[in-house]
Amino acid sequence: MGKPRRKTGSMDMLHGSLWDKILFFTIPLALTGVLQQLFNAADVAVLGQLVGKNAIAAVGNNISLIGLLVNLFLGLSLGANVVIAQNIGGKRLEKVKSAVHTAFLLAIIVGTIIGVLGELLTDPVMDVMGVPDEVREMAETYFRIYLAGMPVIGLYNFESAIFRSRGDTKTPLLSLVAASILNIILNLFFVLVMDWGVAGVAFATVIANGLSAGILFRKLCRSESIIHVDVKSLAIDRKCLSEIVRIGLPAGIQGMVFSLSNLLIQSAINSLGPEAMAASAAGFSIEINVYCFVGAFGQATTTFVGQNYGAGKLFRCRRATWVAMGLNALFTLLMTVLVLLFGEEMLRFFNGDPEVIRLGYMRLLYIVGPELVCVVLDGLSGALRGYGISMPPAILTLLGVCGVRITWVYTLFREYPTYEVLMGTYGVSWVVTTIFLCLAYRFYMKHLKPIPKWRMEMHEKEERA
Q: How many CB atoms lie within 10 A of CB 130?
C-alpha cells in the first residue's frame, strides 16, 4: 500500500462573515508576493553591496522585462483560478478535476515556449531598450539564466492558483519561505565563495524557484482533496482550456501592458545613466512590497467572487468586492506611511551612494504616494475577472496605462528629460485607468445575470455521465 495522501486546507467562501475570511485568505497571499519579491531584493542587495552599482543596474534593467513574462503566467493562472473556483462553487467536481490537470499541463507548455523565445530574442530586446554598454553584458547574462527557469516559475504560479481556488493560500507561502531561505544562502555562496557575480544570483533564483514548484507539486500529488493531481491523468480538456484562456489571457495581457509601459519607462531611465538605473532597481524592490498587498486583495476578490458567482450568490459577490477594497485601503495606507517615513533607511540597505538614495526616494514618493488609487483599480479588475469578464479590464488598462505613459514619455519627458518628470507618469496613468474601470464596473453590474440554470444543469449532466 502507498502512503496516505494528505488533505489540503480549504475555506468556505459561500457562507458566513467575509472580512475575516478575506483577511485569512489575503495575508498569506500577500506575504507570498513579498517573498517572491525578496528573490529580486536579495539579488539587488547582494550585488549592490558586494559587486557595485553597475551590477545592481544590470539586474534592475531586467525587472520590467522579467515582469512582462511573469505577468503572462499570472494572468493565465488567474484564469485557472476563476475556472476552478466557479466549478467548486457550483459543486461540479469533474470539471474541477479537468481544470486542475489542464492548468498543470498549460503551465509547463507555456513556460517552455516563453523560455525558448526569450533566449532567441534577448539581443534584439536589449538593443531596443538601449541598455548602456557598461552594464549590457551583465544584463544579458542575468536575463538568459533567468529564462532557463521559466517552466518552473510558470508551474509555481499555476500550482499556487490551484491552491487559492479552494481557499488555501498558506501552502504556497510555506513553500516560498523555504525557497527564499535557499535563495539567500545560494546568493551569498555563489557571489562570495564562487565569485560568479550576476550569474551567481541568477542561478540562485532559478534553483530556488525550482524548489518552491517542487514542494507544491509533491503536495498536490499527495492531496486527498478535489485539487489532487494524478500524473497519469494529465491531459488537456479543450473546454477547460478555452475557459482558462478566455479569462486568463486578457488578464495576462493586462499585466503585460503594465510591464510594456514599464519597459518604455525603463528605456527612458537608462538614458539618465547608471545612478538612475540603480535607484530605480532599489526603489522598485521596496515599492513592490506595498503592491503585493494591493494585488493580493485583488486576487482575493477574484476568488471570492468566482466561487460565489458559481453558486449564484450575486449579493455576496458584491459584498465581497467592497469588503476586500475596504481592507485593502487600510493596509495600503499603513504601508504607504511606513515606506515614506523610513524609505531612505531602506534604500541604504541596497546601496550607499547618496545620488542613488536621493533618486530612489523620489521614486518612492511618486509611486508609493498614490498607491491608494490602485486599491480601486485592482479591486474592480479582480471583481470583473471573478465574474468571468476579463477582456474589458485588459482593454481599459491598455488605453489608460499604456496610452498615458507612451504619450508622457514622448511629450513631457522629451521636453523635460528629468527623473522627477518621468516618475510623474505612474500616478497619472493609474488615475485615468481607474476612472475607466469605475465606469465599466458600473455598466456590467447593471447588466450582470446569474449563471444560467441550463448551463449549471448541463454541467451536472456531464458529471453524472
A: 14
How many Å apart are CA 140 and CA 13, to the nearest integer?
A: 45
In degrees to the nearest 10, what's the CA dihedral of 431, 432, 433, 435?
A: 80
Q: Which positions ≥6 away from 342 have C-beta within 8 Å?
A: none
Q: How far apart are CA 116 and CA 19, in angstroms?
A: 43
Q: How many other C-beta atoms lie within 10 A of the C-beta of residue 452?
A: 10
Number of domains in the chain: 1
Cell 555563489 locates to 190
pLDDT of residue 452: 52
Flag whether the pTM goes above 0.90.
Answer: no
Exposed / middle / buried, residue 232 (Cβ in 10 Å: 0-12, 13-18, 19+) = exposed
CA 452/CA 190 separation, integer angstroms: 57
Spatial distance between the Cα atoms of 372 and 368, rounded to a whole number of angstroms? 8
Give the helix/strand (H/E) hosting 142. helix 133-148
Report yes or no on 460 lying in a domain: no
Cell numbers describing residue 301: 476578490
Q: For residue range 189-228, list pLDDT tens digits in order.
A: 988 888 888 888 889 989 998 999 999 999 999 888 888 8
Q: Residue 415's pLDDT is what?
A: 92
SS3 letters across 46-92? HHHHHCCHHHHHHHHHHHHHHHHHHHHHHHHHHHHHHHHHHHHHCCC
Q: What is the chain's alpha carbon radius of gyration, rounded to the nearest angstrom?
A: 22
Any domain includes 51: yes
Domain range for 287 is: 19-447
What's the one-letter identity of residue 108? I
Give the pLDDT confidence score for residue 328 in this predicted structure.
Answer: 95
pLDDT band with cut points at 50, 70 and 90 for residue 334 = very high
Count how many Cα atoms sit within 13 Å of the Cα of residue 426 in the half-sphere of its side chain: 24
10 lies in a domain? Answer: no
- Would residue 4 count as lying in a domain? no
